[in-house]
């Protein structure tokens, strides 16, 4: 299986990205039947706050991974980036659960903030998150299907810098959006 994955990183990236984005858009657009999911009201209400905490931890693990690779500490880099991927997966499961049951959150602040701050921030957050999905999958698949010694021969480092940047900005903007939706307004 690993040999197949090693030879088909691009195809697997495309399939995983399509499935992931289809799940997100399906949930956001209301195509996931609510009856399929158990409704745990305390969890539904906690998800935005849990996801803000998860996002903050993900930022820390990504920064730790970037710092580690700059110091040539490959094991710490690998552990940090795999932790980041795990945190993102947890974030996504919780997000999909809540949005499938509740739909998107309504912005309750002033129109001027909505138009000139919230919407542009949300647009960049969504764009970066969408673009990050295949980039992150690609880097993760390269890293998990090859020995560490073979990674310099791949585009892992170059694409990884893009992935980390997209991930960091998306997580940071997600926290800002959470602040506007659930704390400030």
TrEMBL record:
User: The organism sits in which domain of life?
Assistant: Archaea
Which Pfam family, any one of them, does this sequence belong to? DUF420
Annotated membrane-spanning segments are 12-32, 52-69, 81-97, 117-141, 162-181
Q: Does the keyword RNA-binding apply?
A: no
- Protease: present as a keyword of the record? no
Keyword field: Membrane, Transmembrane, Transmembrane helix
Residue ranges that the Swiss-Prot or TrEMBL entry lists as coiled coil = none
Protein name as annotated = Putative membrane protein
Organism per entry: Halovenus aranensis
What taxonomic classification does the UniProt entry list for its organism? Answer: Archaea, Methanobacteriati, Methanobacteriota, Stenosarchaea group, Halobacteria
